[in-house]
């Protein structure tokens, strides 16, 4: 089973809708505030009822629509327990399983490094990696309690131990790519393939990336599910 992949061009963010094989329930991963109308229209078009809104982490480059979607649909917001998002309905921990539809299961993996609380989600041979593992790259590790060493461990010990044929659906892409596989990333990822932990840490420490423009707005907003403070 494949997800429905949607894209926000302003933040280069992927949002995913997972639909149950039977029944009408669905889950959405990493929705973007400016795209809530698109996302609800897609759900309506397919006759789907939203059961969960999932976040892979507290994003620094866009504001989530999780709170708005929860209000509109009655879905539960499920978030990584280490990301300080107290208004969520469900605080996720490593090894948790989320169930929706008749027999659908999403396995939760704690994959810190981009942020301390970052998580990935496994469903039917698909893994949604957020900013932990990107296509031919990975998320930065220089803010929000990021750690290059932790990210290296998350990828090598959790994600790269999944079957090679598992499809990798990242949280972002900046080069017009949409999906990869665990096997391809293990062999070819320009930051991680055939690289030991120390050289990866050195690589990440020398990226000298600019500070995300929206970080001071996005992170506090996302820690409140994208809703105004006090809402």
Automatic annotation (TrEMBL):
Q: Which CDD domains match?
A: POD-like_MBL-fold
**Keyword Glycosyltransferase found:** no
Q: Output this protein's name.
A: MBL fold metallo-hydrolase
Is Glycosyltransferase given among the entry's keywords? Answer: no
Q: Which organism is it from?
A: Noviherbaspirillum album
- Source domain of life is Bacteria
Family annotation (SMART domains): Lactamase_B
Sorted alphabetically, which SUPFAM superfamilies does this protein's record hold?
A: Metallo-hydrolase/oxidoreductase
- Metallo-beta-lactamase domain spans which residues? 12-172
Which keywords are on file for this protein? Metal-binding
């Amino acid at each position: 089973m494949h997800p429905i992949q949607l894209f926000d061009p302003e933040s280069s963010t992927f949002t995913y809708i997972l639909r149950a094989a039977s029944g009408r329930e669905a889950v959405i991963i990493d929705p973007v505030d400016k795209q809530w109308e698109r996302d609800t229209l897609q759900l309506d078009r397919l006759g789907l009822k939203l059961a969960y809104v999932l976040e892979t982490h507290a994003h620094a480059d866009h504001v989530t629509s999780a709170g708005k979607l929860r209000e509109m649909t009655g879905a539960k917001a499920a978030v990584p327990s280490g990301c300080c998002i107290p208004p969520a309905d469900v605080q996720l921990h490593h090894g948790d399983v989320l169930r929706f539809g008749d027999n659908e299961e999403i396995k939760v993996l704690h994959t810190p490094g981009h942020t301390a609380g970052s998580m990935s989600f496994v469903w039917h041979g698909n893994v949604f990696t957020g900013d932990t593992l990107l296509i031919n790259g990975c998320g930065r590790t220089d803010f929000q309690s990021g750690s290059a060493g932790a990210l290296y461990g998350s990828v090598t010990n959790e994600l790269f131990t999944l079957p090679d044929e598992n499809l990798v659906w990242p949280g972002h892409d900046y080069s017009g790519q949409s999906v990869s596989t665990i096997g391809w990333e293990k062999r070819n990822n320009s930051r991680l393939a055939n690289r030991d932990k120390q050289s990866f840490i050195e690589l990440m420490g020398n990226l000298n990336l600019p500070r995300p423009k929206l970080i001071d707005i996005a992170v506090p907003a996302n820690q409140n599910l994208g809703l105004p403070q006090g809402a």
